[in-house]
Amino acid sequence: AQTVTQSQPEMSVQEAETVTLSCTYDTSENNYYLFWYKQPPSRQMILVIRQEAYKQQNATENRFSVNFQKAAKSFSLKISDSQLGDTAMYFCAFSPFGNEKLTFGTGTRLTIIP
Amino acid sequence: GAGVSQSPSNKVTEKGKDVELRCDPISGHTALYWYRQSLGQGLEFLIYFQGNSAPDKSGLPSDRFSAERTGGSVSTLTIQRTQQEDSAVYLCASSQGVYRAPYGYTFGSGTRLTVV
């Protein structure tokens, strides 16, 4: 069984600053995917970024980037130049290759302060 | 449709009543998933459909929970004899298929169920 741990229940940062959200996971799988999802008050889960475990290069999507450390089973999300619209719950998630189920962490509530 | 549609958006029910939650996936998406999000928790997998069949229903918490999908499209999650611990947000997602799921999950906005 896989587990995903997010150790920061809440974080806040000033607008335009950089913030890093932590995620660790535990699995015996060698091939898998990792994700960060954003959940604003509208409740809809929005995919922010994904990483294939077989790729050594860290994924980047505009202001969002990850630090993927496979040996350490760590997958942190960095948000640069934070904006008010980044305020949301952020969930880290894991999926083994070829398996449709996502295992989620308990989330980090991020607040961007004007 | 353009997105995954769930109804109702909010539902308040009395303990012991049955409820039905509906999910209308993106047209052409063959895979459909139900997750539950309890207060302060992450999302918990409930059941997965590929077409009209459910290869994995291991996350359903009890026999009071059931789900079906018809015509490879709309899915209904039914909770019988609701209990207060069933209060949660129920999220539905769809994708183009099992091996593309990690790339193609689209979530709906969920149904917030409150059992009083």
What would you say this structure looks like, in words?
The complex is a heterodimer of chains A (114) and B (116). By secondary structure, chain A is mostly beta strands. Chain A has one domain: Immunoglobulin-like. Chain A is built from no helices and twelve strands. In chain A, the strands form three sheets. In chain A, strands 2, 5, 6, 10, 11 and 12 form a six-stranded mixed β-sheet that branches. Chain A has a four-stranded antiparallel β-sheet with strand order 3-9-8-7, with no helix packed on it. Chain A has a two-stranded antiparallel ribbon with strand order 1-4. In chain A, a hairpin with a 6-residue loop joins strand 10 (88-96) and strand 11 (103-104). The model of chain A has no long low-confidence stretch (mean pLDDT 94). Chain B has 116 residues and is mostly beta strands. Helices cover 3% and strands 49% of the residues of chain B. The longest helix of chain B has 4 residues, at 101-104. In chain B, the strands form two sheets. In chain B, strands 2, 4, 5, 6, 9, 10 and 11 form a seven-stranded mixed β-sheet that branches. Chain B starts with a strand and ends with a strand. Classes of the chains: A mainly beta (114), B mainly beta (116). Chains A and B meet through strand 6, strand 10 and strand 11 of A and strand 4, strand 5, strand 9 and helix 1 of B.
